[in-house]
Amino acid sequence: MNSVVFHIDTDDSVRLSKAFFSAKNLLEAYKDDGIQIVFIANGDGVKLFTKDRENSLKDEMVNLHKKGVKFMVSQNALRETHTALDNVLEFVKIVPSGIVEMVNLSKAGYQYIKA
């Protein structure tokens, strides 16, 4: 099975939108073979995955999540950006360290894509 991890480290909804477009293309291209897609946010990127964020991309995130796409944010980055844990969207997994999670996924065969 194909596996990719998208890395988000900036508070840039335009870049995230483009990454979502790429994820949708991957889901379509590999619908027969299967694909695992993970988005990991660290740095200021964690701000894009919060409940109080006025973000038109939330609906896209929910739709991608329903198709099996996983979303993760770094707890270290949440602390660094003074973002409360309970402000993270419900379907987003909080991992201790985004960079460590990316290394682990890379070891597991995930292809890295900088968003």
From TrEMBL:
Taxonomically, the superkingdom here is Bacteria
Cross-referenced InterPro entries? DsrEFH-like (IPR027396), Sulphur_relay_DsrE/F-like (IPR003787)
Protein name stated in the entry = Uncharacterized protein
